[in-house]
């Protein structure tokens, strides 16, 4: 748990990005790893590097992406390497440097990357059905029985956020607080917990008077794990629907590879297709990140214009990172 300003945390996160960037390709500084890494003869990198951060304290993130890696390797003939990043800023800066080719983002961090000049385009996002309009919400949570009953009551309180570049753990909560007349930097004591689970559990334990986390972390994930019991927390605010987290690819890769990766994520990384291709015996056996009931579906950049509007409301320093 860390009590810091969003500016100092963002700086620390960018510094951490250097570590990810150096480790992602495992090569010396003399090698040309920018915009696609050390290349094969056709301009494609020898190894496709995929990076993501956990939404909770989990050591199984790499296992969640194992099937994704397998399909990409089979389809492209390229090796893949997975990097478990510490925060979204690390993924942003590693993609900016060309050290990570495929990044799994939150909506806010994707917009931050794209709008700050990182050459990325969205491939797909997770959904529970092929025709679903994917989305989720940010919840403001307090201990059960707390006298805090609305965002207006957050003034003067210690409030848990997730990360300065977290969509549902900072950006949308900041917008909600501002609309309630609360300055999220000066009218509360902000605590950046580092994960949605950590934020919720800090509220439960009393380390924070209130906090924010995405909806199913509070209502499903931590309850199923036994870390929360139903009724431990009260939800006192819900955000508008937020577009689901995208996976983005470097657009500086060879166009035929970008097109191939788009086809893989949009048409082959879903449970029915994986069963048909023989990767799983049943849909339930197909392990995908975030336990998506269907898998990946296509997504376009304009889906994230709502995030850009919230950036205009909050004027968050992270939006301009």
From TrEMBL:
InterPro entries: PhnD (IPR005770). It comes from the Bacteria. Residues 1-29 form the signal peptide. Keywords: Signal. The keyword Coiled coil does not apply. Belongs to the phosphate/phosphite/phosphonate binding protein family. The keyword Signal applies. CDD domains: PBP2_PhnD_like. This is Phosphate/phosphite/phosphonate ABC transporter substrate-binding protein. GO terms for cellular component: ATP-binding cassette (ABC) transporter complex. GO terms for biological process: transmembrane transport.
């Amino acid at each position: 748990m860390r009590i810091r300003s969003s500016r100092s945390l963002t700086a620390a996160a960018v510094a951490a990005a250097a570590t990810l960037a150096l480790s992602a390709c495992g090569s010396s500084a003399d090698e040309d790893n920018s915009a696609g890494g050390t290349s094969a003869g056709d301009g494609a990198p020898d190894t496709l590097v995929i990076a993501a951060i956990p939404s909770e304290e989990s050591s199984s993130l790499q296992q969640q992406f194992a099937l994704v890696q397998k399909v990409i390797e089979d389809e492209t003939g390229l090796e893949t390497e997975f990097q478990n990043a510490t925060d979204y800023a690390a993924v942003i800066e590693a993609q900016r440097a060309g050290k990570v080719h495929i990044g799994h983002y939150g909506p806010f961090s994707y917009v931050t990357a794209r709008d700050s000049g990182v050459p990325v385009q969205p491939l797909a996002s997770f959904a529970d059905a092929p025709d679903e309009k994917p989305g989720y919400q940010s919840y403001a949570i307090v201990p059960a029985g707390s006298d805090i009953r609305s965002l207006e009551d957050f003034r003067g309180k210690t409030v848990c956020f997730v990360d300065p570049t977290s969509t549902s753990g900072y950006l949308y909560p900041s917008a909600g607080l501002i609309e309630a007349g609360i300055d999220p930097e000066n009218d509360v004591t902000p605590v950046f917990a580092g994960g949605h689970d950590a934020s919720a559990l800090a509220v439960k334990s009393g380390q924070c008077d209130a906090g924010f986390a995405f909806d199913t972390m509070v209502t499903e994930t931590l309850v199923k794990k036994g870390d929360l019991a139903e009724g431990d927390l009260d939800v006192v605010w819900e955000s508008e629907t937020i577009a689901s987290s995208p996976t983005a690819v470097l657009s500086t890769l060879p166009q035929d590879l970008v097109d191939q990766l788009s086809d893989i994520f949009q048409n082959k990384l879903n449970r029915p297709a994986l069963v048909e291709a023989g990767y799983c015996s049943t849909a339930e056996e197909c392990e995908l990140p975030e336990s998506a009931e269907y898998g990946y579906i296509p997504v376009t950049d304009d889906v994230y214009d709502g995030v850009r509007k919230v950036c205009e409301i909050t004027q968050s320093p992270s939006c301009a990172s």
